């Protein structure tokens, strides 16, 4: 009923009863002047005069029933019975209306203090509401569990699910005729309470034609939850926004691949010239001076068999080399043409960083599942069971940063830590040899004890010197940074590893210098706790997400945020940068993942098929896919071009706290979580320029075994490297040796060959055969829930967490407080 109609009915009632004073007060308080009042009671009175009493009766009934809990229960019971008795063609669509109506009926009952009535109603309908299209919906089951936790009126403004549900409108897709049937029932039965709920909290999208059934009508988990549809009719428009997901031009990896391809071309030219010279020498022994001419001698004689074989091999080798180089150059051109220019200003990388990146590319191990898996370095932080809340490792693997609930940060220098352990081992060996006193033994002060080795050194002096050195190493290898006044929820290193960013529950993001080991700046803008922070892979930007439902873009050169990304209906729990730095992804407790344009601040993708709240995000190296870990242990993989979920990875039995793609081709996805397991999943290989060139050269070489053997003989020395002095050398060798594997292939993952594997039966032309989205390996820690997973630039798998003898918690973050 419109507000104008309500005003009319009230005025009519006051006039009918003769309450002139009340009528005058109502006009003043309702801001109705005399003309408007006369229009309502005069002109409109003619059209409403016949049903004034009936309309007034309906209005009074609605107002009186709003405070009557049993009226809500009866209304919902009647709606459910009517939907169940509808025609088969429309029943499934009409039953979809029940779930959002039920949630808001439950919240209304709690608001009026009828928690016991709400609990009975939930118990009565839980089983049928969880079932969607004949299947159990995990999304609805979790939402109903959260709804059950809303027991008193105070929870309506404190519980995240209740807040999001009351402040948003979910979207229902119905056929035009189903909607007409629904409205006819509600208005005919005078179900004003349910009409009020639908008007306030549900947006209907109508379509012509027959009702949608099964998956098309939301019969699967996608769209089954209440909060998943709250973006409304804008979802379709958002997800059709054009995207440019290409990587940036003039990247270090592209320049490196171009340089190596040129070197390979020169090397192959020399090999071809050498083969031609050998053929010419063999022909010269038969008196023939032109190796590539006619095989007949001047006197009519024939070339020897050796000369003919050498000539044919030289021709075949040259043809294969030319074909391989042409294919590699064509693939390189295709990939480079897909690169894009940045739309936001980015600082150029300094020469030291470029050199470091080239060194990493030179030593990078290309991972090819299922055989060639990475080596891993795992870090357990002791005595931090209830205090460690965040952790990250620097790209060069020299530093480990950890955040704690006491508001402190700690930096661990891994090189010094190793040196300290070496000194401790040296001390233990000397004690065992009697060169140092045993621990706890009494030593007479002032008396010199000579070692049996005859070095003339005082044992006490040597012990004291060693202890001082150990103390110095201990002071240097761990540094405590203090500045926050709340729990440190997230950490992120800058691309050059000189800066460290931290997000805290004190509503700030802080900037620290890893060299000076001091705080440099504090960024204030969030109103509530900041849950996550991520440094830009290009330049001086960072993005943060917090409990105020926003993500914010910062620059190290400005104290205020450059952009505010608003649109989520609940906390922004996790953030991530796209590899081209032109987009950022955010995951929220409203069970949606959004992709934002950094420059314009617009939301360009919205993925809502989350089975639970997202807890971590990871982009594939080519930026085409996005993996989102969730609280229920699943990982959703999305194609960003279509905004559709490509795969649902399952296996974890607790929240997934971290995820990362391998470098290069991105053929592995590593995930870690509260269940103390690290899992490796196979993923579709990305268009990586180094891998693409390798594969083209290997495929061409595999087409001619003789040429491949010649290539292997000349270049097998580079096969044991990720990308050595000759790209084709390792690739051609891998194709040639078949089941033998490339020379130097893999003793421990880090030294594994690019293209050579332990079992050649899985490979054709150096390219492995495997199914994507499959669980490859599961590694279980003894007592460490995993809160950080990452790959170094050289594809060393890095992971870590707190040593904990207690069963892992199912909370979103250890100590995060959400």
UniProtKB/TrEMBL annotation:
Residue ranges of the TFIID subunit TAF5 NTD2 domain?
67-202
Q: Name one GO biological process term.
A: transcription initiation at RNA polymerase II promoter
Which UniProt keywords are present, listed alphabetically? Nucleus, Repeat, Transcription, Transcription regulation, WD repeat
Question: Where does the record place it?
Answer: Nucleus
**Which sections of the protein are WD repeats?**
481-522, 523-564, 565-606, 607-648, 649-683
Chief location category: nucleus
Q: Does the keyword Transcription regulation apply?
A: yes
Output the Gene Ontology cellular-component terms.
Answer: transcription factor TFIID complex
Q: PANTHER family given for it? A: CANNONBALL-RELATED (PTHR19879:SF1), TRANSCRIPTION INITIATION FACTOR TFIID (PTHR19879)
Tell me the protein's name: TFIID subunit TAF5 NTD2 domain-containing protein
